[in-house]
Amino acid sequence: KLAPIMPTSSMGSTTPDAISTIQASTLSMNPVMREAMSHFERAVEIMNDSNAVESGNDTMRLAFNELRKSAELGFSEAQYILAGMYETGEGIEVDKIMAYYWYSKASQQEHLTSMIQSGKMLARGEGVPMNPAEAADVLFRAGRGLMKESECETLIEECIAEIRALGKQVAHLADDLSVDMASKKLSESGR
Predict the structure, then answer these.
(1) What is the Cα–Cα distance from 147 to 94, expressed in whole angstroms?
(2) How does DSSP classify residue 2?
(3) For 88-114, how does the pLDDT look when each residue is reduced to its tens digit (9 = 90+)?
(4) Which pLDDT score is estimated for 7?
(5) Residue 10 — φ and ψ, nearest 5°?
(6) pLDDT tens-place string over residues 58-89
(7) Residues 2 and 91: beta-carbon distance below 8 Å
């Protein structure tokens, strides 16, 4: 069974008004994105309907298919959720290759949590050949993106720790990110 889902921010945390924000933004979207959003909204409605969840696999397969259509049309939030489903086996069989594929698709659109997840998968060789240099680059860009959006310091620190764990060849990226975070803190404190 699938757990109820809600759209998230680019860093992956649930935001209560995300659907209304997304719906409002569909007015300015191109037709393909409007179609992707329509599939996404249907998937969210099904997954958040407790009666549908209780009715079993056929209904949840419909929700999964709607989510997949949205992801295939390029909607990064759908790509992120689909990747998580493949990674954890939520409602489908675990498939690390597909999880990495969808995280990387969302990462290409600067979906920050997807960038962190794809970086971790690259670092560990989950669903993709291990590639410490690429993992460090993706995690570094995610950390920089989190700083630009003034997002969760804990996630930035997670990026730094993941990069450091990759070894000496890429440790300078962790150092750069740490310095950037410290500088940002100082400038925000008015010093």
Answers:
(1) 32
(2) P
(3) 988 789 999 999 999 999 999 999 999
(4) 47
(5) -65, -15
(6) 777 888 899 999 999 999 999 999 999 999 98
(7) yes
Please, are residues 159 and 146 in contact by the beta-carbon 8 Å criterion? yes
In which residue are the tokens 């310091």 written? 153
Token code pair at residue 47: 């997954």
Q: Is the pLDDT of residue 18 over 70?
A: no
* φ/ψ bin of 30: left (φ > 0), alpha (ψ from -120 to 50), beta (otherwise): beta
Say which residues have a Cβ less than 8 Å from residue 127's Cβ, sequence separation at least 6.
95, 96, 97, 98, 99, 100, 101, 121
Helix residue ranges per DSSP H, 26-170: 31-48, 50-55, 57-72, 76-88, 96-107, 112-124, 132-148, 153-165
The pair of structure tokens assigned to 62 is 């419909």
Do 138 and 122 meet the contact criterion of CB atoms below 8 Å apart? yes
**Tokens coding 42:** 């249907």
* Residue 3, helix vs strand vs coil: coil
> What whole-number distance in Å separates Cα of residue 59 and Cα of residue 89?
17
Strand-pairing partners, residue 14, are: 8
